Amino acid sequence: MAEILAKLEGVSRVYQKGKERVDVLHELDLEIEKGDFLALMGPSGSGKTTLLNLLGGLDKPTAGTVSVGGATLSSMSNSQLSNWRATHVGFIFQFYNLLPVLTARKNVELPLLLTNMSAKERSKRASLALEIVGLADRANHRPRELSGGQEQRVAIARAIVSDPQLLLCDEPTGDLDRSTADEILGLLRSLNADHGKTIIMVTHDAQAANYARRTLHMDKGKLETRATA
Amino acid sequence: MKYFGLIWKNAWRKKIRTSLTILSVLVAFLLFALLNAIGYAFRAGEDVSSAERLVVIHKISLINPLPISYEARIASTPGVAEVTHASWFGGYYQEKRNQFAQFPVDIKEYFALYPELIIAPEQLEAAAQNRIGTIVGHELAEQFGWKLGDRIPIQATIWTKADGGRTWEFELEGIMRSNDPRGSTAFMLFNHDYFDEARAFGKGTAGWYVLRIAPGADPVEVANAIDAQFANSPNETETSTEAAFAASFAKQFGNIAMIVQLILGAVFFTLLLVAGNTMSQSVRERIPELAVLKTLGFRDSTVLGIVLSESILIIALGGLLGLGIGWVLVQGMAQQLSASLPGVYLSPQALLLAVGIMIGAGIFAGFFPALKAMRLSIVDALARG
């Protein structure tokens, strides 16, 4: 039996918008195995991104527990969560979220600033990550000098540079054309298959979900029973 | 230090905005340097004053002279070790812009009371012996190219001679300097006897008296005893410490310290608004980026530190440039004004204060934007971005 990397038990997330109570997630249970590539699909507002935020320690559940790699995120303080995120999880966003003032290499180096690595070692690790995503030759370019696909590759390099077990992708191809999206998805699949990364990807795109090992559907804060393998 | 690259790049995100902010900071610290150096010149007398010396002036005002006969009476007051007198001459050399201080004194007594003034003994003796002999500070000798033996005509603005003339001629017998690096000797001393004989009015008077108190004597008691002697006379006295005298002398030109403080206060208040606005805008336009940093694992306190450091960096860049330019200008000013306003000097204390202000202003300007960045909710900020 495969090892469980992430586990959600009875997780609810309620937001208060003024006087209105919004139930985003409702008593959700989920187990994700190490090495899984999971696509989360569902309509807007179904709670996909909230689930991703909980798994990445960006948000805390209103009820229930979230544990990843043996760490119970739901009981950690903010600074403990910061430390945990720095080493255990990589994030990939729809709009890349690179710092425009830094070169590709410096963007990739950002998570390593939180370690005790020397500048030389940081640069070496960033170069390696850029090489993995096929962008070694664009290391000294700034984001505005790169195409959307290249920017997303830099974002992926930034996500993997500290070698986290878990990669969380929120619509990673939502801003890309089909062929570039396929390249990015192929890269994610390679990171899953060849480098053993566990990937959870939120997407609206059924073709993107096809790259995953399995797909879960969400609606109104609950996981639907139908799952695609 | 490892965050410096990130801080530097962020600071220059909008080059024009940052440059303009740095320029405004530069101007503020340039003004700080210049005004402080000028203020220092007005305070110089206080700084180099001696605690052992008291100054006796007319109770009404420094302008009113005191009878020369007071010297002996002051000297006989218990607690007084030595006493001498001086007067304000108020002349210029060749052109009105060449104004500097000239004092008719008893040369030997004066140097005995001011041991910080250094002069070769033979020059002192020669000046005392020569009726029209004079001693000038090395600053004046350098500025006007005077050498020993030169004849120096001084045009009087107050003291006409008995013959109606306004030109007083002196012979340079000595050049003095101070052993106190803060002290200026940009003034001229000459024999009171020559002055008293030749002047058209005010004979038998002196501008003020300077005395050294005897070891162990209480300065307050000595001052009170002197003033009591002349109470209810036509020329009542007011005795104070040399520092108080120097301060009141400087205040004749206005309360320079307060003027400087008011100007600098207004300048730095504006500076805080400008820098605070820059930081506020800078943080507002990169909220998603700050959220990304937090997502990557940067702690709230680290984000706070990065934004504050950016604010301090911008102010320090402008401040150091302003101080640097100010320092160069002050050197030029000090040379140009060495005679008319000696002691123009940018002190190490003023430089330290400026650095303190830079850090304080940087923290103040960046505090609220940094707090906003620190408190940023990642989920909300990413949703907004």
3D structure, described in words:
The complex is a heterodimer of chains A (229) and B (385). With 229 residues, chain A is an alpha/beta fold. Chain A is built from 7 helices and 10 strands. In chain A, the strands form 2 sheets. A 6-stranded mixed beta sheet of chain A has the order 6-7-8-3-9-10. The radius of gyration of chain A is 17 Å and the shape is globular. The relative contact order of chain A is 0.20. The model of chain A has no long low-confidence stretch (mean pLDDT 92). The model of chain B has no long low-confidence stretch (mean pLDDT 90). Chain B has 385 residues and is α+β, with helices and mostly antiparallel strands. The chains are: A alpha/beta (229), B alpha+beta (385). At the A-B interface, helix 2 of A face helix 1, helix 11 and helix 14 of B.
Largest interface, counted by CB within 8 Å of the partner chain's CB: A-B, 27 and 24 residues
User: What fraction of the residues of chain A are assigned to beta strands by DSSP?
Assistant: 25-35%
Arithmetic mean pLDDT of chain A: 92
Number of helices of chain A: 7
- Might you state the CATH topology name of chain A? Rossmann fold
The helix-strand sequence of chain A is EEEHEEHEHHHEHEHEE
Task: Give the termini separation of chain B.
Answer: 29 Å
CATH hierarchy class name of chain A: Alpha Beta
* Protein structure class of chain B: alpha+beta
How many domains make up the 3D coordinates of chain B? 2
Q: What can be said about the biggest beta sheet of chain B? A: 7 strands, mixed
CATH A-level architecture of chain A:
3-Layer(aba) Sandwich
Radius of gyration of chain A: 17 Å
What is the chains' assembly state?
heterodimer
Q: What percent strand of chain B? A: 15-25%
Helix residue percentage of chain B:
40-55%
The arrangement of helices and strands of chain B along the chain is: HHEEHEEEHEHEHEEEHEEHEHHHHHH
Spatial order of the strands in the main sheet of chain A? 6-7-8-3-9-10
